[in-house]
């Protein structure tokens, strides 16, 4: 089932999400619905707050990036990178921060360069509630950090300079007011 994606301005996007237990009601269906919603919106990641739930859950499928010439050196790893992250907590950030142009399904038609560390180590549970401690680098670490920020109530626009925030403020207000056309299901706060 395709779920509406919450737009910028929705209070749930600013909540710090809470951990869930393995017996969370309908977890398997929820994960399936999140992937379906993400694919329909042509995304590569989706966090539970983006569908209105303040729980520590996000899904990622960055296989579409495997076709991008920029990622030739990690193509094989990207082709198999479809993951579920439950109760994720980043334990360590490493490496030089690097800029990359990011966008967000909750903030359509806005893309900006965001600086993030190149490597992270995190603890999380997968869809079978098996615990993992794993290190991720390159574009994988970036996408994970973007989705991880969602479960902490942080949006990529929060990481922009004051000037950039001022420049995009009008666009953000239009998104919050629902004055934008998107080709996927959205729920606007106003």
Automatic annotation (TrEMBL):
UniProt xrefs under CDD domains: Pep_deformylase
Active site positions, chain numbering: 147
Alphabetically ordered keywords of this record: Hydrolase, Iron, Metal-binding, Protein biosynthesis
Cofactor: Fe(2+)
Reaction(s) catalysed (UniProt annotation): N-terminal N-formyl-L-methionyl-[peptide] + H2O = N-terminal L-methionyl-[peptide] + formate
EC numbers on record: 3.5.1.88
Cofactor remark from the record: Binds 1 Fe(2+) ion.
InterPro entries attached to this UniProt entry: Peptide_deformylase (IPR023635), Peptide_deformylase_sf (IPR036821)
Residues the record lists as binding Fe cation: 104, 146, 150
An annotated Gene Ontology molecular function: peptide deformylase activity
Pfam families reported for this sequence: Pep_deformylase
GO BP terms: translation
Function: Removes the formyl group from the N-terminal Met of newly synthesized proteins. Requires at least a dipeptide for an efficient rate of reaction. N-terminal L-methionine is a prerequisite for activity but the enzyme has broad specificity at other positions.
Record-linked PANTHER family: PEPTIDE DEFORMYLASE (PTHR10458)
Protein family according to the UniProt entry: Belongs to the polypeptide deformylase family.
Name used for this protein in its record: Peptide deformylase
Source organism of this protein record: Elizabethkingia argenteiflava
């Amino acid at each position: 089932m395709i779920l509406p994606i919450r737009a910028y301005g929705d209070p749930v996007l600013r909540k710090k999400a809470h951990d869930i237990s393995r017996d969370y009601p309908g977890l398997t269906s929820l994960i399936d619905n999140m992937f379906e919603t993400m694919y329909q919106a042509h995304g590569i990641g989706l966090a539970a707050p983006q569908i209105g739930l303040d729980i520590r859950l996000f899904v990622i499928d960055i296989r579409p990036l495997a076709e991008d010439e920029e990622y030739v050196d990690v193509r094989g790893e990207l082709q198999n990178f479809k993951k579920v992250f439950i109760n994720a907590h980043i334990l360590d950030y490493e490496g030089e921060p690097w800029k990359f142009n990011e966008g967000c399904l909750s903030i359509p038609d806005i893309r900006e360069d965001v600086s993030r560390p190149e490597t992270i180590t995190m603890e999380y549970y997968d869809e079978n509630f098996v615990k993992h401690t794993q290190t991720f680098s390159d574009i994988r670490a970036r996408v994970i950090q973007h989705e991880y920020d969602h479960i902490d109530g942080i949006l990529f626009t929060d990481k922009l300079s004051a000037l950039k925030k001022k420049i995009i403020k009008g666009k953000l207000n239009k998104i919050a007011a629902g004055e934008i056309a998107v080709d996927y299901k959205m729920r606007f706060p106003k």
